[in-house]
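Quick note —
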Amino acid sequence: MQEPMNNTFWFPGRWIGGLSLIIGPLLLLAGTLLRIQFHFFYDAQLAAYAKFPTLITASYSCFVLGCLFLWPGIITLVRFIGMKHPALAIWGGMFTILGLIGRVFHGGIDHMAFQLVNVQSLELATKAVSDSYHAFHIVRYFNGMMMLGWVLLAIGAYRSGIFGIIRSVALASMFFLPLGTLKGTRFESPFLILGLCIALIPLGIKVLRDGPPPSRKAII
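Predicted structure written out below.
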């Protein structure tokens, strides 16, 4: 006889989902603030790496880690939205996670560009990036969907009663965060990611508190 399905399980679960909602935005904010003193365009970013390699490596590493750590939190938010508005949850979640994947893809390009500074020179690395900046890659055709995902999630969170108007607008403002190769910190970028923190961190705390603490076995 077939056993009944476990309807209480959900992925990624309360602890991973809640921690993701807290850690992901904070890593993105840290990565953005670490490079705030430099001009945002690629030539200035490469020059900054040539002069401060540890600082710039830490900045871009935090940002990529933030994208990697955030997707379980997005799935957690999608779960709550989907209880009342499944269409907004599905498309908002899909597009937003595509956006995080796209930013990790660009992080790989950034890493390679910085290595060109190490193995060749700043001048040759800058020329290589300049000559290939508009080269074809399939990810760029998803840019519009990647940005739209935040807006759909914000609408879904507001209509579901998960967020009020302020936190919904704060989440939707991520639509304006620059996307692409070697994008440094523009004036508005810290405020946009701070909005993400305002939107998601309280939800992460609520998710973590909504249940018993982990068992000793689970911690081990």
